[in-house]
Structure formats: structure tokens, C-alpha cells
Design a protein that fits this description.
about 50% helix, MLTG-like, mainly alpha, two-stranded antiparallel sheet, EC 4.2.2.29, two-stranded antiparallel ribbon, Dna Ligase, domain 1, transmembrane helix, cell wall biogenesis/degradation, elongated, about 350 residues, 15 helices
Length: about 350
């Protein structure tokens, strides 16, 4: 091989090596860019959830990512989103974020609508507006939207309720619900839960008491408001059922407090008893038009499985233990009531 040939071969190797290096560098650039766009950690730990409201589009999503500082690089997310066709597939919901999540993982989650459900746990909520506020604090819709559904005669009458007793449809428990569930869909889901709860056995027990499920719920709300301890619930339920069956006024203090809309009351006075309301069971016989609170399942079952007793009267114990003294006669009740009044006076509790 001549010297010229050797030099030519050497030059050729250099060119080939240079081309190879350039190709590797270019490939590396694209690989690194591909990694940054799709596979590099990009989600921060600044937010626990990404909320995408109903009706949001891609621009709204990007704006939210910027304002909440959810991703480190908005540009890489945008590039990946455009390539993965997220622009036309933004689905509303509440999405669980994890530190270091990649663009690809987040985009696929949004496209699939794989949101984490909200756990709703409700019990002892007094009024519909309180319930609506609780729902609005945990779900997308505002409280007014929930109130409008709860007050919709057309909707609630379809399920056999009215504006007074619609509260009885909500069985206190823990439920999983998607954040963006509509108020109407929420209502329908709750009615399905109501139907599940009121199985044949519970309906038979209610019928044996000559009560509808809604009436059982209303009585349970009074029992729950009276009882500090669950073990007293069947006794109190038996007492009030005795009064109902005899046509005697229930004279339940919690209904008077509800009627006066003052839940700071510790002592029901004669002035409070004068309120003109169908919820004032000192003035109106029978059950009030609807529940005075959202009772526990234990309270509902306590009514269905009430203790058979002869009690007509009850009074809080004078030791303020939270328990009650029960009586079958007015004479015994007066003795119990006097002890309690004296105990209240000693503690300067006059209202």
C-alpha cells in the first residue's frame, strides 16, 4: 500500500469517525430531549391534587398548572401533551399527584379520567343548608347547586319525598364519590344507597311500628339528639313510641331547640316553648314534619329494635353524666325533674 493510499484510508476513517460521533451526539440529543419530555420527573410536591373543573379545556389546564406550580417545566408538559393528544381529551376530575411523576404518567391519567374518589363521611348534620355546605367543601359543585336539587319538588317527589322529609333519604355513612359528580347524580346515588339500606327486614320492622322509613328516620333524629350514649337509644326510642301510640305530645327538647334555630341552648325555658312551629313537639302532637338532624345508623336501628318498656317520661340525670332518669309515672318524673333543675341552678345554667 502506497503512502498516498495510507493517507486516504486514514482520512476516510477520520470522516467516518466524525460522522459516527455526530450521529451519536444527535441521537443523544434527541434521546435526552425525549427523556425530558416524557420520562423525566416533572411533577412537584407543591400540590396534593390537580383539580380540573367541568368544562375546562387544554388552555385552562395549562393555566392551572402554572398558577399552582404543579410541574417544573410547563413547556415540556405542553410538548408531551400535544404529542399525546391530550389537547382534545382533557377530562375533569380530582387527580392524585405524586412527587416526581412524569409528564407521560400525568397525561395518561388525565386522558383516562383516572381520578381518586373523594370519601364523604356525614352524620349529625342538622340542616339541609349545612349539608349542602359540607358537600360543596368536598365536591366541585357549590352549595347553592346542592340546595336547588334538595328543594326541587319535581325531583324529590319522584322518589316519594317532600322538602320537609327529603333529608331522610341520606343514610349517614362513608361513601366514595368522584369530585366532579353533579348534584343530580349525587342525589340519585344516595337514593340507591337508601334503597340498599331499607332492605326487606328493616321495612318489615318499620311496618310493625306503623311507621314509614321516613318517619323512623325522623324519630331516630330525635333519639340521637337526646342520647349521648348509644346504649340508651333503644330505651328512649321505646319511650317515644309509647307516647306516639298513646297520642301523647312527644315534648322532646331537641325539637324545640331546632324550632328556635338556636343550637347554643342548654336549658329549654318556657319562652322557647312558645315558638310557633310544627317542629315544636310541646305544641303539636305526633312526629314533626321531618328530621331535626341526620341520625346515625345506630339510632335508626335503635328505633327499629326499640326496647319495650312502660316509660313515658325522661329527664337528664342530675350528675351531668349524660345518662337519663326514666319514669313511667308523672309523680316519679317530677322527682327526677326537680333534682335536675336544682343541679342546673347550682351551676348557674339558666338558658
Amino acid at each position: 500500500m502506497t503512502e498516498v493510499e495510507k493517507k486516504s484510508m486514514s482520512a476516510g476513517k477520520k470522516v467516518t469517525l466524525t460522522i459516527a460521533v455526530v450521529v451519536i451526539l444527535i441521537a443523544g440529543y434527541f434521546a435526552l430531549n425525549l427523556y425530558k419530555v416524557y420520562f423525566a420527573p416533572n411533577v412537584t410536591e407543591n400540590q396534593k391534587y390537580l383539580y380540573i373543573k367541568t368544562g375546562s379545556n387544554f388552555d385552562t389546564l395549562i393555566d392551572g398548572l402554572k398558577k399552582k406550580d404543579i410541574v417544573r417545566s410547563v413547556s415540556s408538559f405542553t410538548t408531551a401533551a400535544e404529542k399525546m393528544n391530550l389537547v382534545a381529551n382533557v377530562k375533569p376530575g380530582r387527580y392524585r399527584l405524586k412527587k416526581g411523576m412524569t409528564n407521560r404518567t400525568l397525561i395518561n391519567m388525565i386522558k383516562a379520567g383516572n381520578q381518586e374518589p373523594v370519601k364523604l363521611k356525614f352524620q349529625n348534620i342538622r340542616k339541609k343548608e349545612n349539608f349542602a355546605a359540607y358537600l360543596a367543601s368536598n365536591l366541585e359543585a357549590d352549595s347553592l347547586s346542592f340546595i336547588n336539587v334538595l328543594d326541587s319538588t319535581a325531583l324529590i317527589s319522584k322518589y316519594g319525598f317532600n322538602q320537609d322529609n327529603v333529608y331522610a333519604m341520606f343514610i349517614p355513612n362513608t361513601y366514595e364519590m368522584y369530585w366532579n359528580v353533579s348534584p343530580v347524580d349525587f342525589f340519585e346515588r344516595m337514593h340507591k344507597e337508601y334503597d340498599k339500606f331499607w332492605n326487606a327486614e328493616r321495612k318489615q320492622k318499620a311496618a310493625a311500628l306503623n311507621l314509614t322509613p321516613a318517619q323512623v328516620y325522623t324519630l331516630a333524629s330525635i333519639v340521637d339528639a337526646e342520647a349521648l350514649y348509644d346504649k340508651e337509644m333503644p330505651i328512649i326510642a321505646g319511650l317515644y313510641l309509647n307516647r306516639l301510640n298513646r297520642g301523647t305530645l312527644l315534648q322532646a327538647d331537641p325539637t324545640v331547640i331546632f324550632a328556635n334555630n338556636d343550637f347554643t341552648v342548654k336549658r329549654v325555658t318556657n319562652k322557647l316553648l312558645q315558638v310557633q312551629s310544627l317542629y315544636n313537639t310541646y305544641k303539636y302532637a305526633g312526629l314533626p314534619p321531618g328530621p331535626i338532624m341526620m341520625p346515625s345508623i345506630n339510632a335508626i336501628d335503635a328505633v327499629l329494635n326499640r326496647e319495650k318498656n312502660d316509660y313515658i317520661y325522661m329527664c337528664a340525670k342530675e350528675d351531668f353524666s349524660g345518662f337519663h332518669n326514666f319514669a313511667a309515672t308523672k309523680e316519679q318524673h317530677e322527682i327526677n325533674a326537680k333534682k335536675y333543675r336544682e343541679a342546673l341552678n347550682k351551676r348557674n345554667i339558666f338558658k
